[in-house]
């Protein structure tokens, strides 16, 4: 039997080995393979991490031995030795999961330094300052990242040292200062850990490796995985790489660059670098980095080589790359490459540009865009007129585009709580860190005083599609007193500001937002999407305004017009209540007479907006409790209108009160007891259709009956509607094609769909009610406990958001099969919330439904998801 292998040299892997080597490790191996200047090293695989957890958090001897063997070859290869007092090898230790995870332990640099190797390093490089700078960095990173000692304890020492000497920046510290700092750092370590700072490099290494393994399960990483649907059992790899030094003086430096602009997608190198620094200085935003373009002047040779490599990498990976590099005494090294995180705008522009340049094809471009990401584009930005009148209080870096307004809060927890109270909040921080993730998710926008375009706040906000202004140094963020200050103003916790993540401007107060305009690359991409998608996308819309919006977003018809929503209007609701509370048929007919013209006009307007596209109108389905009056004023008013005593109205309200309104007298049940309601609606639909068609508009109304569970319910109502409609058509002498169908939203309807299909021209699956009734979870109350179900992993997802394919999906499948078995050409659609959710859309496509229908803002998402479903599984 072959022995298990847990460690891989960079020369043994490639980019397709991500699940074993993690993203970072696989790409380091790939870059080594294609001959790029990567400092040598090896990767401890994710299987070693999983082995560690399988063995009660123990790194087994067999694995330790393998690590030691690889370390030995690295030492031989470089002719250096870890911890050696002559020619010491220093290492970087970096975590590297399959998917990049900012919540995890990231990097420890300069591992291998101790009190004697620091002298050797100083000697070998003839640079004592550099050696002690590296040592103090190592102690600080090891203590923070591997041992959990708070970073600020070290930063305070550094700040005090600079202040007492009157220095401005870190590079002003000389080697004597740094020696003192090292002594103080070691004292902090001893005080916190109750042990001396480990001097044995192999101990340092094993502790660091173990810290990376442990970081896989730290709470931040767990939250991040949950947010991003990353499975918890993947484990992380650990990359051990020989150090190269960006802090060796003025001919050294380090930086991060994207091959294209990650905010806009512009095909131009985008990034920043710092001279005489190590990697973490760029990300931490301690010194302000320079724009990558000025590297050309500082180190022209290294710059030219870097530009060449960026284009090699982009062509090799066929995607925009996010690259980390270090220059050690004019010599360029590449430390990492990965597909760069980007805004949706950038993602679309890049994908379309890559197709135009024949690097990828249309299908690949479609697959590159995460449907949910489109949400970012579909949200409003600030209205230009409102913006002109708004007061700019500061300007920072435009780190992540979009617009956000809200009350300011100064820590993540306060933002989470504010969101819980229904407030809109802006997270304001000196700089963000992975602990802030949840607050960032809940915030409308993020403002930081420090950090550049590649700082944590900027990178994470862009990934989330959240607007962010970073590095806003014109303001002072006082996290302790919870206020933002400048010379001219103070903004306290709970006061409003607005952020424009595209310009970097910060405004006082809440600025009005506007709708989005979708053009250019978006349009091009969506044209490709429509070429490939093979399921119709309709929209749910209850009024002409939403219908117009749906068309703008590419809807091919209305899949659900909820007529009860047409009555929510203040001036209509009294007539609806009158209808519901009527005691006699006569009373009800009076109320219905009032409603008829309103409904007719509604439908005419809808038909006009839809201009020939199909319109599915669902007859009244009011959960009665949503419509009954509760306050005295409404009750008194109603009594007057209906000519009844207040007490009579109150009695009627009590009569109509239901224990389970969602399972009560709603939907078609209402029409079984009061057929005149649906009769009025059918009249209004067909009269509206006739009126619209007289104006030259082609109309094919689809009349939909809700909440059918037994075919006889449908038959009775359908016959009544048909008679009403046919009489009107005959009397008018016109020809209006129409269909009558039903919602399938009760489990029994799925089970008896073959019978129901006999009486229906179409089915539309109502997966909201179907989920409610399949699980037995009330739609109105499930929010109270479903979060906990998901947290405790009893359910993977909230089934009202993402279709439960195992249970509810099985019923839908049964409904489809039985329906088609008795009526092969029956039209099938879905209009529950799941019609706009990508994984559910894929499921519906694979079931062979004719259309999905969702809210207008989700139509582009649904179109893209539909195209992706086709590309994955063409039919
Ligand atoms: C459904 O139940 O899925 C549906 C679309 O109808 P409503 O949400 O109006 O009950
Ligand atoms: Mg329903």
Automatic annotation (TrEMBL):
Transmembrane segments: none annotated. Belongs to the PEP-utilizing enzyme family. Residues 519-869 form the PEP-utilising enzyme C-terminal domain. Its EC number is 2.7.9.1. Residues 423-504 form the PEP-utilising enzyme mobile domain. It comes from the Bacteria. It holds the Pfam family PEP-utilizers_C. Residues 59-294, 304-346 form the Pyruvate phosphate dikinase AMP/ATP-binding domain. This is Pyruvate, phosphate dikinase. The keyword ATP-binding applies. It is an enzyme of class 2 (transferase). It catalyses: pyruvate + phosphate + ATP = phosphoenolpyruvate + AMP + diphosphate + H(+). Keywords: ATP-binding, Kinase, Magnesium, Metal-binding, Nucleotide-binding, Pyruvate, Transferase. The gene is ppdK. GO terms for molecular function: pyruvate, phosphate dikinase activity. The keyword Transferase applies. Its cofactor is Mg(2+). It comes from Romboutsia sedimentorum.
């Amino acid at each position: 039997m072959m022995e298990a292998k847990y460690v891989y040299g960079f020369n043994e892997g490639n980019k397709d080995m991500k699940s074993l080597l993690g993203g970072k490790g696989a790409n380091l191996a790939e870059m080594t393979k294609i001959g790029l200047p990567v400092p040598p090293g090896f990767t401890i695989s994710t299987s070693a991490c999983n082995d560690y957890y399988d063995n009660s958090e123990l790194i087994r001897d067999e694995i330790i031995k393998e690590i030691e063997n690889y370390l030995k070859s690295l030492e031989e290869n470089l002719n250096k030795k870890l911890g050696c007092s002559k020619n010491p090898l220093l290492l970087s230790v970096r975590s590297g999961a399959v998917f990049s995870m900012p919540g995890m332990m990231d990097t420890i640099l300069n591992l291998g330094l101790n009190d004697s190797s620091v002298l050797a390093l100083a000697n070998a490089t003839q640079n004592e300052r550099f050696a002690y700078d590296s040592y103090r960095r190592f102690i600080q990173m090891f203590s923070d990242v591997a041992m959990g000692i708070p970073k600020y304890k070290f930063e305070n020492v550094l700040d005090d040292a600079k202040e007492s000497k009157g220095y401005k920046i870190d590079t002003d510290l000389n080697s004597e200062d740094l020696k003192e700092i090292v002594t103080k750092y070691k004292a902090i370590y001893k005080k916190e850990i109750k042990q001396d700072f480990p001097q044995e490099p192999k101990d340092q290494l094993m502790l660091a490796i173990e810290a990376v393994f442990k970081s896989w399960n730290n709470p931040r990483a767990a939250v991040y995985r949950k947010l991003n649907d990353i499975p918890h059992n993947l484990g992380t790899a650990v990359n051990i790489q020989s150090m190269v030094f960006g802090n060796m003086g003025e001919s050294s430096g380090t930086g991060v660059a994207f091959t294209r602009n990650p905010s806009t997608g512009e095909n131009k190198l985008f990034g920043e670098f710092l001279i005489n620094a190590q990697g973490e200085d760029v990300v931490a935003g301690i010194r302000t980095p320079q724009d990558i373009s000025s590297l050309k002047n500082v180190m022209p040779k290294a710059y030219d080589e870097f530009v060449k490599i960026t284009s090699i990498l982009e062509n090799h990976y066929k995607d925009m790359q996010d690259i980390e590099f270090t220059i050690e005494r004019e010599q360029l090294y590449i430390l990492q490459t990965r597909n760069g995180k980007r805004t949706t705008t950038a993602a679309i522009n890049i994908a379309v540009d890559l197709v135009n340049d024949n690097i990828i094809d249309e299908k690949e471009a479609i697959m590159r865009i995460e449907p949910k990401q489109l949400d970012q584009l579909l949200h409003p930005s600030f209205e230009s007129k409102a913006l002109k009148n708004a007061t700019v209080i500061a300007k920072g870096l435009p780190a992540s585009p979009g617009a956000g307004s809200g009350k300011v809060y100064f820590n993540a927890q306060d933002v989470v709580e504010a969101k819980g109270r229904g407030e809109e909040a802006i997270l304001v921080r000196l700089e963000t860190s992975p602990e802030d993730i949840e607050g960032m998710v809940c915030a409308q926008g993020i403002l930081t005083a420090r950090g550049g375009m590649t700082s944590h706040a900027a990178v994470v906000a862009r990934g989330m599609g959240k607007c962010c202004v970073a590095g806003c140094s014109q303001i002072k963020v006082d996290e302790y007193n919870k206020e933002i200050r400048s010379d001219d103003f103070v903004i306290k916790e709970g006061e409003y500001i607005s952020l424009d993540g595209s310009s970097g401007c910060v405004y006082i107060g809440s600025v009005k937002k506007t709708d989005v305009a979708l053009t250019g690359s978006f349009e091009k991409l969506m044209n490709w999407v429509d070429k490939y998608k093979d399921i119709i996308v309709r929209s749910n819309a209850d009024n002409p305004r939403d219908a117009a919006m749906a068309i703008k977003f590419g809807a091919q018809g209305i899949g659900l017009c909820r007529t009860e929503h047409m009555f929510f209007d203040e001036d209509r609701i009294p007539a609806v209540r009158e209808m519901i509370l009527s005691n006699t048929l006569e009373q009800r007919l009076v109320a219905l007479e009032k409603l008829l013209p309103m409904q007719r006009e509604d439908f005419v307007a809808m038909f006009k907006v839809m201009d020939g596209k199909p319109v599915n109108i669902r007859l009244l389905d009011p959960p009665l409790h949503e419509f009954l009056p509760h306050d005295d004023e409404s009750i008194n008013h109603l009594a007057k209108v209906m000519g009844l005593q207040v007490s009579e109205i109150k009695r009627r309200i009590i009569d109509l009160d239901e224990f389970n309104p969602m399972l009560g007298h709603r939907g078609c049940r209402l029409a079984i007891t009061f057929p005149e309601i649906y009769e009025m609606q059918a009249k209004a639909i067909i009269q509206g259709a006739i009126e619209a068609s007289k104006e030259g508009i082609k109309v094919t109304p689809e009349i939909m009956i809700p909440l059918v569970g037994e075919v006889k319910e449908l038959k009775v109502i359908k016959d009544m509607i048909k008679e009403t409609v046919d009489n009107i058509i005959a009397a008018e002498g016109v020809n209006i094609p129409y269909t009558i169908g039903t919602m399938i939203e009760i489990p029994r309807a799925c089970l008896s769909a073959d019978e129901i299909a006999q009486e229906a021209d179409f089915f539309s699956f109502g997966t909201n009610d179907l989920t409610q009734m399949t699980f037995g979870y009330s739609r109105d109350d499930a929010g109270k406990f479903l979060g906990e179900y998901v947290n405790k992993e009893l359910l993977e997802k909230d089934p009202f958001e993402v279709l439960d394919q195992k249970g509810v999906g099985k019923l839908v499948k049964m409904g489809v099969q039985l329906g088609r078995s008795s009526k092969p050409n029956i039209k099938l659609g879905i209009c529950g919330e799941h019609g706009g959710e990508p994984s559910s859309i894929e499921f519906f496509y694979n079931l062979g439904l004719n259309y999905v229908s969702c809210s207008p803002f989700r139509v582009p998402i649904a179109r893209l998801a539909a195209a992706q479903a086709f590309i994955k599984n063409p039919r």
